[in-house]
Every structure is written in C-alpha cells, then in structure tokens.
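To assess whether the prediction recovers the assembly geometry, we first specified each molecular entity separately, as shown.
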Amino acid sequence: MFTKFNKKLDTIFLDPHSENFETKESVNVMLSPSLYWVKKVSLPVKYTREVKALLPSLFEDILPDGVYSYSAYKSGDHFFIFAYEDKLILDILSAKGVVPTQVHNVYFAQSELSYIEDAVKINDSQSMILKNELLVLVPSSWIENSIELDRLDVSKLSLSKNSITLKQFGHIVNDKALYTIATIFILFIAVVAVEYFITLHKISTTAALRDKLFVKNALKPTMMQNRSILKELQDVHTIQTKFREYVSHILSLQLEKSEKLTLLSLKANTLIAEFSEVQKGSEANIEKVFKSKNMKYKSSFKESTWHVEIEL
Amino acid sequence: MNRINPLHIAGLLIFILIFFMVKLSSAKDDLTDTKKLYQETLSLATQLKGLNEVYSNKSKVENSLKMLLKNSSLTASNIKQKNSTAGIVLNSQSIDKTALNFLMGKLLNGSYNIISLKIKRLSEKNASLEMEIKW
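The predicted structure of the complete assembly is given in tokenized form:
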C-alpha cells in the first residue's frame, strides 16, 4: 500500500502487510499501529524531556522481549508515549524495498492520523479506529463502516513535528554502551594527545637547554668541531700524563754506581733518555723496569752510552 | 534517518588513537635522542671546560710561570724566557741540580703542556735546560 501525502516528498504508510513500494526517491514513513506500542499517560511532570527518562519503566510490564527505543510527545495535559523496535521496522522497510538511506523522516500514525473520525481499513483483516484519542488496530470484521486508506483526504494532512529517528545499529550495541565505549576512547585519545603535547614541550625545553650550554661554554657551532677539539685536548692530556709518569719511572731507576743519566729529552711525543757508562748486559735491569711498566721503547748502544727512545 | 554507522565512529576514533599513538611514539624517540644529545653536549662541555682550563689557559700559565721563575732558588740559574703566541720557551745554559729539581718538581706537578724538553748533564752538579710549554 503506497499513499502519497506530500507533493514535495512522498509519504508511505508502513505496515507488515503493505505491498512492496516501488520508489527510489526519499520518502517519509508513517508507521502503522502494529509497529509500535502506545500509551496515553498523565504524569506530574511539565516537559517531555522529563518523561523520556521514565519511558522504559512505563513500558516495563507490557513489552515482549526485544530491543526497544522510546519516544513521547505532549498533547494537552497528557503525554503520548511510544515504544518501538528499530530493527523490526528497518527489516520491514527493507523487505518492502525501501533502503534506510531513502527514509527522510519517520512518524507514528498516532500523531498524524489523530483527526480521523471513521475507521480506516488498512487491509482485509485490520482497520484503525480512534478510541480515547488512541489510534488502535481492530479486526476489520468488527467494523461496519470504514474507509480505505487510499481514500484519506491527503490534501488536509500536514505532517507533525513528532518524527523519530530509527537506530540502524541499535541491535548491535545500545546507546549507553556506545557512549561508554566512545567516552573511554575519547578519554584515551585525550590522554595520549596530552602526553604527546607534553613530550613535544619536553623536546623543545631540552633543545633550549642544550642551546644555553653552547652559549654558556662558548662551544663551536657544530658538535663535529667540538668533538675534534675535545679529542685534541684529550690526546694532549694523555701524552702529558704519560710523559710525567715515564719521567717518574726513569728518575726512580736504581742505576749502577758508574751509570749516569746524561740526557733526558722530549720531542715529537717521544721521550729520549741516555745512560752513560753502561756495561752491555747490565741494561737488562733497566729494561725489566720499563717492561713491567708497559713502556714501549727501542734502545741502542753507542760505545758505553745506552740510548733509549720511549713512545708516549 | 541517515545516522552515522557506529562502526565508522569507532573506526574514526581508533584511527585518531593510532595516529596520536604513532605521533607519541615518534615524539618519545625524538625526546630520547634530544636528551641523549643534551647529555653528550653537557659531558663534552664539562670535559672541554676542564681541559681548556688546564692546557689552554694562557694567562694562568703565564702568571704561574712568572711566579715560579721569580723564586730565589732559580735566580742564580739565569733562566731565559722567550714568549710566543703559541707558548713559552725556557732556556738555561747551566742550572745546578737543586734548582733543576725544584723547577722540574713544580713543572711536572703543575698543569703545563710541555711539548719539548732537553736536560743535558754537564757535570756532577750542573745541567743545561731547554723546555717549551704550549698554551
């Protein structure tokens, strides 16, 4: 069953027994009373938003098992409250050839057809009648006079603002769980993002401290230059330390009575010592000391003078 | 009715999370490198400062040598000084062994960059001395 109510946008009346809809355009959907549960209630609250929090408990005892969404609107001193299964409606829409992306707005027949006076026949077995302001389904056999749904005066019908949005994925995960998971994710993202920005700040602070070190210690612009200067100075330090250590070893030598240290010289990182009046073979005592101190040397004799060159 | 698929939102959140985690991981690596470089620079600056203080401090070397050579035990040795931009050369044709011991004791225990030295025995009590100190 396909009824056009709007010139701009077609409106379809959706019932489980509707015929398939042949349309590729966007449509408004009016739900048959068989697709929702409705109550007319009087509550000691002023605003609809206050009622919405109470809806699950108001339907608690009457709804069969299922995943329900709830809606409400105010009419006079009363509230009309609704419970409906998104997945059921979406499945019926799909079965009737309407994909979710085609659906513009969804309305309850209750809010759109509350003006009807006569029974409206939906199909051979079911009709809608208004009873105590509630649009209810009754078997067609109970009704003597009814009009066909197609004969409703569509020109007078204007859609209300009481539309609902179907949750396409409500059966996969409910809103509360979705919001909880999303909140956890967002918090986690926030934590990671904050840590990222703190890390960036630490990087810039450390880089600034390093720049200060360059200025304070009058370092050269590049680390390569500085490393080169340090290497040079470390080499100087090593040579000077060894020079003093080796001179100390030489001056501490136990020489024979006739033996004399006649020359001590340093040139091109080589320490030279000359001992006079050294008998060949007696230099072994001195060499023993040099070897024990891991001194690298080479020696030669010139007459009775023993010439030693020690590498620093 | 065209509600956003929660899986798309989850995907987007996961993407943003992964994006920030990758950025954070990269930033942490950068921070480690920056800290390492800072520590290296600090160590290098400390060592350079110390070694420069010891071996490249011209005024300190000049002043301490000046004080040393003024010592009464060295005046008789007639030690000549020759300054250059790179250092100082000390020279004595004849220095007695007491003065030589005193001088060498001070120089070897001090922080001088001695680049050349020649001590030649002249007699039982005397020697000649030639030394170059760099700054």
